[in-house]
Design a protein that fits this description.
The structure is a homodimer. Chain A is of the alpha+beta class and about 220 residues long. Chain A is about 55% helix and about 5% strand. At the A-B interface, strand 4, helix 3 and helix 4 of A face strand 4, helix 3 and helix 4 of B.
Chain lengths: ~220, ~220
C-alpha cells in the first residue's frame, strides 16, 4: 500500500504545499519535491495531474492517479503510512472537530490573513484585520491546555494552523501590528515555538521570505 | 460511542442538510429533524451551535459539542455508527478520490448549478451553464461501470452527488435544456433512478418543489 515513488508538486510560499510536506516529514517518507516555477505558466505535469482545479499541491504516489487538495492529501498520507505517528485524532468526535477547524482556517482565516497583507483597499484591509484578530483570539483559546492542537504530538490541526502561522507574523511585520504577544497570545506563541520542530522547520518558508513574497503580490495586484 | 440523542438542524432545500439526513437514514439512526424556518432570522440553537459559520447543517449528538459542515458530519456518522453499511470507501486511495470529487461538487459544480438557476445576468448564466455541462459530462464518465459511485452500495460520493442531482433536473425544467438525456447521459440517469432508494427518497426535496424555491430565490436576488 505504501510502496512506490512519491512526488509532490507545490510552490514554496503555499501553505497548502507546506502542509503536505510536513505530513510526509512526520511520517519519514522520502519524496521528490517539484517546485512549480510560475503560476502563470503551469507545468504540463500539474495540468495533467489536476485537470479539474489545475492547482497545487498534488501528490503522486506510485502508479496511482495523482491526488489533489491539501487536506485530502494529508489524510491520505496518514492512512497509507499508518506505521508512523498518527496525524488525525483517534476519536471520531475529535477528528470531526479538527476537520472543522481546518475548514475554518481554509475558508475564513487564511483568506483574511492574505487579504490583510496584499489588499490595496484600506476598507478591505480593515475588515480583514478584524477577521484575523477574531481568528487569532479563537486559536489562542484552542491552543490552551495541551502541548499541541493534536495533544502530545503534532497532529492534523497543528499542520493546518502551522502552515499559515507565519502569515500572522508577516502581518505584524508589514503592518506594524502586534497580533502575537506575550500579553495577549502566550499559548499560541509557545505552541509556535514547539511547532518549529525538526520535522517541520525545513519546510516553513520563513517570515522574511514570506513577507517579501506578500509585498510583491501586493504590488502586482 | 453511538449513544445519545441525535438532532439535525437544517433546511429542506439545502443539499448540505439532505446529505446529513441521507447518511443517518442509511445507518438507520433515529433523529429529530429541526427545520430552520428562515435564513434571515436564524434560531438561537443554530447560532449557539455553530457560532463560527452560523450555518446549517448542524448535528447534535448526545452531550458532545455540535458538529458542523456537511462532509465532516457525514464522515462522523460513518465512523460513529460503524455497525451500519460503510459510507466511505475502505481503500485509502479510493477514499481520497471520493473526497476529491466531493470537493469538486461543493466548490465548483453546485455553485454553478445554483447560479444557472438563480442568476439574473445572461452572461453569468451562460458561463455557469458551460461549467454545468462540463460537470455533467465528468459525472457521466465517473458513473460508468458500477451500480453506484461507491460500488455495489450507496456511498459517500453518491450522497454528495445525490444531494445536488435534482438541481440538474431543475435547470432542465426551468431553462428548457436537456442536460440529462438517454443519448448523452444514460449512466447518470440510471444511477439517479437507483439512487432513489428507500433510504433516501423521503429526504430529497423533489424537482417541482426545488424549482419553485429556485425561482423564488431568483426573484429575490
Amino acid at each position: 500500500m505504501s510502496e512506490g515513488e512519491v512526488k509532490v508538486l507545490g510552490t514554496w510560499a503555499s501553505p497548502f504545499s507546506t502542509r503536505v510536506r510536513i505530513a510526509l516529514h512526520l511520517k519519514s517518507v522520502n519524496y521528490d519535491y517539484l517546485e512549480e516555477k510560475s503560476l502563470e505558466s503551469k507545468s504540463e505535469l500539474l495540468l495533467d495531474s489536476n485537470p479539474v482545479f489545475k492547482r497545487i499541491p498534488v501528490l503522486i504516489h506510485g502508479d496511482n492517479k495523482p491526488i489533489s487538495e491539501s487536506l485530502i492529501i494529508v489524510e491520505y498520507i496518514d492512512e497509507v503510512w499508518s506505521s508512523g505517528p498518527s496525524i488525525l485524532p483517534c476519536d471520531a468526535y475529535q477528528r470531526a472537530d479538527a476537520r472543522f477547524w481546518a475548514t475554518y482556517v481554509d475558508d475564513k482565516f487564511y483568506p483574511a490573513l492574505k487579504r490583510a497583507v496584499v489588499s490595496g483597499s484600506e476598507e478591505t484591509k480593515r475588515a480583514s484585520m478584524a477577521e484575523v484578530e477574531e481568528g487569532v483570539a479563537m486559536l489562542e483559546k484552542l491552543s490552551k491546555g495541551e502541548a499541541f492542537f493534536g495533544g502530545y504530538n503534532i497532529g492534523y490541526l497543528d499542520i493546518v494552523i502551522g502552515s499559515v502561522f507565519e502569515w500572522i507574523k508577516v502581518i505584524d511585520k508589514c503592518n506594524e501590528t502586534q497580533l502575537l504577544s506575550q500579553a495577549e497570545t502566550p499559548c499560541l506563541l509557545e505552541w509556535g515555538a514547539r511547532f518549529s520542530h525538526e520535522a517541520v522547520k525545513d519546510v516553513l518558508p520563513g517570515v522574511a521570505k514570506l513577507a517579501g513574497f506578500g509585498l510583491k503580490l501586493k504590488a502586482k495586484i
